[in-house]
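Researcher: Last one for today. Full complex below.
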Amino acid sequence: MSQEANSGYKDEALSAITKAGCQVGDVIRVTSKEKTYEGILIPRSETADSAHIVLKLKSGYNVGVHITPEIKIEKIGRGTKPSFASPPLPEQKPGLPKAVILSTGGTIASRVDYRTGAVRSALSASDLYGVVPELSDIARVETEIVFSIYSENLTQKHWTQLAQTVAEHIKKGSEGVVIAHGTDTMAYTAAALSFALQSLPVPVILVGAQRSSDRPSSDAATNLIAAVQAATRGPFAEVGLAMHETLSDTVIAVCRGTKVRKCHTSRRDTFKPVNATPLARVENNEVTMLTDDYQKRDAAKNLVLKPEFSEAVALVKFHPGLDPTVIDWHVERGCKGILLEGSGLGHVSKFCFDSISNAVTNGVVVALASQCIWGRVNMNVYDTGRDLLVRGVIPLEDMFPETALVKLMWVLGQTSDPEKAKKLLKTNVAGEFSPRTLPQELGAKGDELNGN
Amino acid sequence: MSQEANSGYKDEALSAITKAGCQVGDVIRVTSKEKTYEGILIPRSETADSAHIVLKLKSGYNVGVHITPEIKIEKIGRGTKPSFASPPLPEQKPGLPKAVILSTGGTIASRVDYRTGAVRSALSASDLYGVVPELSDIARVETEIVFSIYSENLTQKHWTQLAQTVAEHIKKGSEGVVIAHGTDTMAYTAAALSFALQSLPVPVILVGAQRSSDRPSSDAATNLIAAVQAATRGPFAEVGLAMHETLSDTVIAVCRGTKVRKCHTSRRDTFKPVNATPLARVENNEVTMLTDDYQKRDAAKNLVLKPEFSEAVALVKFHPGLDPTVIDWHVERGCKGILLEGSGLGHVSKFCFDSISNAVTNGVVVALASQCIWGRVNMNVYDTGRDLLVRGVIPLEDMFPETALVKLMWVLGQTSDPEKAKKLLKTNVAGEFSPRTLPQELGAKGDELNGN
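Model: Here's the assembly. Have a good evening.
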């Protein structure tokens, strides 16, 4: 049995499954003193430890079993072995718009219920296209694997590379760009690309899946189809994020990249617009705009690429008992920007005031967004807010903390001058600030959490 | 003009208003080169700077005006001078239950639109009672000012003192406890008291206001009345938080102290239950339970007071580009517990793995909750989660980060033994863990954000 057939396993795990005559894809039974599991032996990533094997259970969930000398492993059947060969590409239909699907990794790029950093076991974008043949009726799709890593391991450098790749495809004539992305940090990347890709001629749509495509409840195919529709048929030209709007499989919302947040660990409608309505809805193969306030698609526009992000930016979330010296430490480490995640209308405790003054004196840009997530900071209502304004803290209106953090990283990637940075931070670059609504207008929104 | 009449003003601000013959409560006009403001001159807190005066505008909002030699100040009328004398207490009606209102500060304890650390300008709990005479038909209310400070300045020490004060009043025969609190950190305090006050015989209800009681849209009175009703008539004996359930002024929800979060900067329905329904609803003077799963009121129960909280606990919110050495720094500073606010089902980047291992090796309890807020962590689904479990990270199920942080502070206030701490962290002490729901049950919840 070659090591290749037991992808990712090594040392004691490899030796145990080899001894039992099993390979990846087999249905096996694992018996320990306490428990018996039956399921398909699935591959592991290259970085996994060597003490566990992983079974995909009938329930669709995976379980890791610790290999000990007492564990008994039996092969009880032959599963569908995961195939890594790309299916043949469907015929490209002339007359359809030209789209590109860029793949970065994540659940949407995984046919079995795991994500992996190993290129071998990730589906390529071309596989995605192959397994969702409906796409060939929507667009002439080109594909490219940009990365194949868990989204929690993406950094500012990856945002830069991704923005550059999008720009290249748009320059080559793509009429819509789709990015398959892990959902964990997809909203951060959506915000990053919103700032990095300005004056877009066509839509750039991020898409992910909360359930992998081998599970009956998978949202991978419906999300991807809607994303390609929005990218190629949407009349807007902004960075959007396409995912289930509700638990229904027929309605996909496209939210503005700067106004969307992952709000549930597992639900398919996990991405919620914050202080905004979605940009558009995709339903019954139709793209419907939900707002008049958007940048129009226009092939004649010249994309402006500003892909640099600073790595010297920190997030400090305020909470009772916060040690304010963490702010001093960030300043000593050479931090150029600090995003305070304040409470309520924009407050932190008075114990932080000296450290904040010290940061500002040292040329650090200190900005504040509210940990409430929804609503708008107003630092003129209470003393604490005014005390922070006097100390030079920049209030970030109705931006929620994650978008605010990404914007601060982007701003300090554009300029190292604190005054220029503050000015740019307060400029509405990509719809990150919504118009101010009057307090009395709130009533109309009923009990939805998403009012402004 | 005495300094007392111009409460809180000093140096140049005091001299400017004295020269203009104005005092706190006067309607004044302030004219600068750019702008003219008219409004009531309101007091400032003792910690305020001396360069500004503050006007309450007709809109109900306050504005701070920087005093410069060019500024012109005129008295144009006499406003209602804020009165700090307590109105007479209404007659105590025999036969009604005995309740206590503890006051800690915050908007609910402020008749003008500011909060202050100065005791003089805060309303006492007895004032609260006086201005809401309806209370005398509900209960025989006793009042006590415990603190009078902005809620963002409360720390673990205040939680301890507050828990001790609640316990004293219950021992003295209070049949319901109400705590008036600033909304910024009210959910943190609610969680803290939930852990500190075990085996409660009667309800303990936190209550706040998003709009101060001198504004027509104030929620102060309705929230306070509902809180006293829930505290004295509710059949449950837990720590709850009573605020507007919707934008309607007639429906107040009481949420469990460990399952509630401030989710909007300004709306009156800002507090949302997370991964739970509210415990009870107060409407038309009736308290209705919304769940069967609660601790029953029972005067015979002996309150168990465990009011200690550790100060050596840090929150590290994961984000792309997080500098993992911040974890090492917390360990070097003597931190005993770290709450990771991970992404999705419970992930942080692989760049943090070494620092996390180092923390655990040094006896630090490292636990994880999801920044999604809603849903449940499941660190067995993906490699990253399993990699963190192997390194000793404790997954905190469906607790959201703020409650998880407070629990970690409380746990490390009970024991310094990491193994005992981990065990206590995983024990359901105050309803902070909800029962696990099956994935297929999610569908029934429709598009509400608050499904489990």
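Residues 156-171 of chain B form the longest helix (16 residues). The domain at 98-305 of chain B is CATH 3.40.50.1170 (Rossmann fold).
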